[in-house]
Amino acid sequence: MNARIDFFANPVAGKVLRHINSAGRAAGDSGLPHATQELVKIRASQINGCGFCTDMHTKDAAAAGETQLRLNLVATWREATVFTDAERAALELAEQGTRIADAAGGVTDEAWADAAKHYDEDQLAALISLIAIINAYNRINVINQQPAGDYQPGQFG
Hints:
The chain is mostly helical.
């Protein structure tokens, strides 16, 4: 598969990506645990069928020390025993936030309350932002048919 356009070379796309990356850095520097950030990005990318982002974030997570077992089980986190209660709350929020169109009420009060038990307000703001940002990246890559598999950990920063 080839990308529809070279998104990384296009000047308009480059400008957009710089702004999204800047927002991602702000959210990433929030104090929200790095492992949680990567798990959320991976799960949203799986839901959205974004191979490029799934490839990138599983490789970046592994390079940062995430175990293969946990990476293998992200898609089935509800049944897996390898995630903390805080991570499970973040994954639930990510799933509901990613599937907004599928749920008339959006994110449930229960999912929000569970996340709020584990994360402070700054971390919650970062979590909301990361969910929105990864969904934006997923949509760009899926629409553009960005190929997956060649990403090298740390390639973009």
